[in-house]
Amino acid sequence: MLEAAGLYKAYGGVEALRGVDLTIRPGEVVALLGHNGAGKTTFVSIVAGLRRPDAGSVVVSGIDVARRPYDVRQYIGLAPQDLGIYPVVTVRENLVLFGELAGLTGRQLASRIDDLAEALELTELLARSAATLSGGEKRRLHTAIALLHRPPLLLLDEPTTGSDVRTRLNLLEVVRNLAADGSAVCYCTHYLAEVEALGASVAILERGRLIASGLVADLIARHGSASVEMCFEGPAPQISLDGATVVSDSVLRISAPDPTAAAATALAALGTAASRLQSIDIIHPSLESVYLELTGRRFEIEEPEVAEEAMA
Question: What is the pTM of this model?
Answer without folding.
Answer: 0.81
